[in-house]
UniProtKB/TrEMBL annotation:
The keyword Membrane applies. Keywords: Membrane, Transmembrane, Transmembrane helix. The chain crosses the membrane at residues 31-51, 63-84, 91-109, 134-153. This is Uncharacterized protein. The lineage of its organism: Bacteria, Pseudomonadati, Planctomycetota, Planctomycetia, Planctomycetales.
Amino acid sequence: MTDDANLSNEPGTHNEFSQDSIYLISYPKIVFLYPTLLVSIAAAIYMTFAGESAHIGGPSEHMAEVMALIFLGVFGLNLTVLAFDFPRTTSLTLFFLGAALFMGAWMILRFNPGIIPPLTNMLKGLRPWANSQMYWLFSSILGLIFICVAIYVRFDYWEVKGNELLHHHGFLSDLERFSAPNLKIDKEISDIFEYILLRSGRLVLHPRNEPRAIVLDNVPFISKKEKQITRMLGALQVQVRTDKN
């Protein structure tokens, strides 16, 4: 009895690979807009509690303008992430270049405000404002889309289970089966910002005796999923070899 308990606690034994199934879900890119949703909800809450003081001409008008600028900035960055792919080298280069240009422009305008009067006046004239209804409506629309996505992916997902790769799809739970042993896995992180937001990337599966590869884009926590699949398949290969011996 004692020997069995000690054996089950040893690393590399069955308990380490006791997870029966690993689920792989490919999400649409809309999920990367969750920072915009969070900022919109925060702005809606602030504008609701601030009330008339945050209206134009009120004592909290400046803070309302700051919230609007933050919302527009985050929304713009999110749309940029959706529109373009940022490989690692390109992303770092653009980041440092953008930071250097911003710091340089800020220092020039800070110490020499009259050097570019039109630009200075334009920046001072940026005073966006939106009421709580706009933020609540935007949050509701985007939140509803997120709920629809959560429902949709429940009818289209992949499952690595035992020695099979299963594809669940359709409202009637249609099922496709592929052989999992000797499954080749490729992990691709083509966008560093998408990886930062959801630790997501592209997972390419190559089942044995299948002419086409299975490409899953925007898989969250892709590194964790890859390690889990590798461990499961490794344990399966060891078990098969042991049975043969």
